[in-house]
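One example given next:
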Amino acid sequence: MTTTTQTAGIAGLTISQRLIAGGLAFLIGMTLLFGVGFASDMRLHNGAHDTRHSMGFPCH
């Protein structure tokens, strides 16, 4: 009796699926970075501001 195990992961994706996943990740990241960074709520803005400074990202 033989058992075959398939693992789901990045290795099973085609190039176009990887590009779509990467593009979506980029859009979500930019939305978080700039959307929260320019938010009118000062708590969100200050949290994004401090995070950018801790990563060495210039913000002003």
